[in-house]
Amino acid sequence: MGPVTLPATLPIHEVIPEVKAALAARPLVVVQAPPGAGKSTALPLALLDEPWLAGQNIVVLQPRRVAARAVAARLAEGLGEEVGGTVGSRVRFESRVSERTRIEVVTEGILTRRLQRDPELRGVGLVILDEFHERSLNADLALALLREVQGALRDDLRVLVMSATLDPELPARLGAPLVESAGRAYPVEVRYLSADPVGRVEDMVAAAVRRALDADEGDILAFLPGVREIRAAQGQLRDVDAVVLPLYGDLPLAEQRRALLPNPAGRRKVILATSIAETSLTIQGVRVVVDGGQSRAAQFDPGTGLSRMVTGRVTRDSATQRAGRAGRTAPGVAYRLWSERTHPLLPAARPPEVLEADLTPLTLELAQWGAPDPSALAWLDAPPAPRVETARALLRDLNALEGAGRVTAEGTRLLDFPTHPRLAHLLNAASDPALAADVAALLEERDPLPGGSGADLTDRVAALRAWRHGRAQPGDVTVLERVERLARQWRTLLNVRAGNAPPDAFAVGELLARAYPERVALPRERNAAQAPGRFLLAGGQGAALPEGDPLSGAHALAVAHLNAGSGARAEGRIFLAAPLDRSALESRAAWVDSVRWDDRGGALVAQRELRVGALVLDTRPLADLPHQARVSALAAAIRAEGLHLLTFAPEAAQFRARVASLRAWRGEDWPDLSDSGLLPTLENWLGPHLAGVRTRDDLKRLNLLPALQALLPWNRARELDELAPTHLSVPSGSRVRLEYRPSGEAPILAVKLQELFGLGDTPAVNAGRTPVLLHLLSPAGRPVQVTQDLRHFWNSSYFEVRKDLRGRYPKHPWPDDPWAHEPTRWTKRRGV
């Protein structure tokens, strides 16, 4: 191949010298170029002859298969070749490369596989990450791995990050120079609805397409959230004077090309597409965009470990990308099926996928890379630690990770399958690989059976096999075609023929249990007879089948698809499952000692349980209750129900209050004996005193004072008695108990006022710093005055009290001069 000459009409041509200079000087460069500038289809060709490339290859990453194939075709066309020559492509289950290939356009998982097998990327001089603004999980992973390769193994490897729109902080975060292309875009007139619509998006899009066909020129690109909506809109547009074509990721290559290329007969086209058509692809002839305003993406719930496809509003940056498709080759029009006042209220952009997605595949990749701790790599946004731990737990269940996070031999084999580790585990070493291929394909595709067909996946396998052999069945033929195409690819990988026999339901269930070990399920025992169809999953979640589903009476289930439910105790709804032989559960079970608190009975339950996660298959009494297990169970019960399970006798309560007062008066070097301070450390301070405790009554009878006293350092015990004494001596000779308050307020000294005659200074604690709060009592023990200023009381209020009480208590002394009278706790007759 000779030197490549680019047409000067491409806007990217103006910045190519700058890109070349930047890559010659720096290993990492960022290019921003609007859609249509030619960055994807021209820039790789322009860099092929650069001296720093030295005959090595270029790998171009595209986030989607449709775009990868289209970009490869355009690059090859620019050289007057077919894909597979100088330009090749690799996507899932499809490779079109040869020994002559210098540019490989690949989807992101393909590069990750190559890096895992050859971290040095021998023979590759440049990796281009295209459409990086989408911030897909695989793109972030690829960038993190490539930066490590550059730092540790290949200082000559170049990485070019390309994006249509850009986070302005990205170049600085990467420490990379930025090259910007002005691009070329024709004006696009944006038309909004007068009010936000109500109804199905496919109906609104079909109606808008009809209006556009009458009012505007050129082909039409309409955006819908998914295949179901595309098919529905396509059905409504059968009678229009245009060729109506779908465009989505799983579409066969020939049908994708029909959507992307001009109609051979010159007829107008209407392309009904998912979000894959937002970027990368320039669809020739498109002058009109109809944006339904919705998109569909996987959303992961770390609390349940489930991902589900969620349809939501389009983001503002995606709406901009979609509208721009109408101005790639000529002025255009964009119909937005929402009101103009709603537009500013749309989300600005989707968060990076690494912050929202199921991290199981990424976590396994990192373990294989030798970085089980994600923080070892340089991320733009680090994977959230709780989600990484959720992923590790699943991978341990799949036997893909060891306890320390290192990849197992099984985990390494799972990475050879271009799919999620769950399905890879289902396919790997399956006893019936042909059945495994069918089940895996069905799990990856939409349900081929109509609504109301029940939840049993076995029926879907039977429908697929019947359709495969030409027998009539009620399934959606379009979906079955896609399922069979995928199943055929799995069979090729596994080197097996298609299965013909009617599927064994328990075999299907066993395969599901391999993929979803935390979703094996048993009927809820208390409701199995009265309310069949309610199950408990091994992961602890409740789930239910639709009423009357044939699987409701199953003795065990393996569940594939369900929703998470809503609310703290809500059950999920099971959409896809298969019956499971209990012997399959028993083969996975292990005996464990279980000691737990029964809050209804108010007692510990100690038994050996044959368990699969939260499922208990059998129980035996546990004769010897280990002390630590007792302590852990009781501590958990107290935390759940509160410290009111314990009885703090007056001495224990006052000990806590005395320490709390000194903590308030003198600082936090005194221990925290509040509820919030005691609950986290129950095992330490209460554990040694729980021997023999099994019931709520046993807990109530515990003497907590010794346990609390043990929390006080030995050198503080005497200090406590000095600074916060339990009693004070008063002038009468009595030792009167103090009442301390945990809030740190002054302690209360309740004493008959006759016992304080002659005392001028209010008694104090805390080395004289904290006067007590005197509750001066009548002879009957009722407070007649509350004060912290005793001297003022004798000189003023005492005379009002004396006037009021001496007639009521004539046997007690009520002197005219309280300063001179002998303090006493007795009446006049007894004397002092």
TrEMBL record:
<dbReference type="Pfam" id="PF24473">
    <property type="entry name" value="CON_HrpB"/>
</dbReference>
<dbReference type="InterPro" id="IPR010225">
    <property type="entry name" value="HrpB"/>
</dbReference>
<dbReference type="InterPro" id="IPR007502">
    <property type="entry name" value="Helicase-assoc_dom"/>
</dbReference>
<feature type="domain" description="Helicase C-terminal">
    <location>
        <begin position="208"/>
        <end position="370"/>
    </location>
</feature>
<dbReference type="InterPro" id="IPR001650">
    <property type="entry name" value="Helicase_C-like"/>
</dbReference>
<dbReference type="Pfam" id="PF08482">
    <property type="entry name" value="HrpB_C"/>
</dbReference>
<protein>
    <submittedName>
        <fullName>ATP-dependent helicase HrpB</fullName>
        <ecNumber>3.6.4.13</ecNumber>
    </submittedName>
</protein>
<dbReference type="InterPro" id="IPR056329">
    <property type="entry name" value="CON_HrpB"/>
</dbReference>
<dbReference type="Pfam" id="PF00270">
    <property type="entry name" value="DEAD"/>
</dbReference>
<feature type="domain" description="Helicase ATP-binding">
    <location>
        <begin position="20"/>
        <end position="169"/>
    </location>
</feature>
<keyword id="KW-0067">ATP-binding</keyword>
<keyword id="KW-0378">Hydrolase</keyword>
<feature type="region of interest" description="Disordered">
    <location>
        <begin position="812"/>
        <end position="832"/>
    </location>
</feature>
<dbReference type="InterPro" id="IPR027417">
    <property type="entry name" value="P-loop_NTPase"/>
</dbReference>
<dbReference type="InterPro" id="IPR049614">
    <property type="entry name" value="HrpB_DEXH"/>
</dbReference>
<keyword id="KW-0347">Helicase</keyword>
<feature type="compositionally biased region" description="Basic and acidic residues">
    <location>
        <begin position="812"/>
        <end position="825"/>
    </location>
</feature>
<dbReference type="InterPro" id="IPR013689">
    <property type="entry name" value="RNA_helicase_ATP-dep_HrpB_C"/>
</dbReference>
<dbReference type="InterPro" id="IPR011545">
    <property type="entry name" value="DEAD/DEAH_box_helicase_dom"/>
</dbReference>
<keyword id="KW-0547">Nucleotide-binding</keyword>
<dbReference type="GO" id="GO:0016787">
    <property type="term" value="F:hydrolase activity"/>
</dbReference>
<dbReference type="Pfam" id="PF00271">
    <property type="entry name" value="Helicase_C"/>
</dbReference>
<dbReference type="GO" id="GO:0003724">
    <property type="term" value="F:RNA helicase activity"/>
</dbReference>
<dbReference type="InterPro" id="IPR014001">
    <property type="entry name" value="Helicase_ATP-bd"/>
</dbReference>
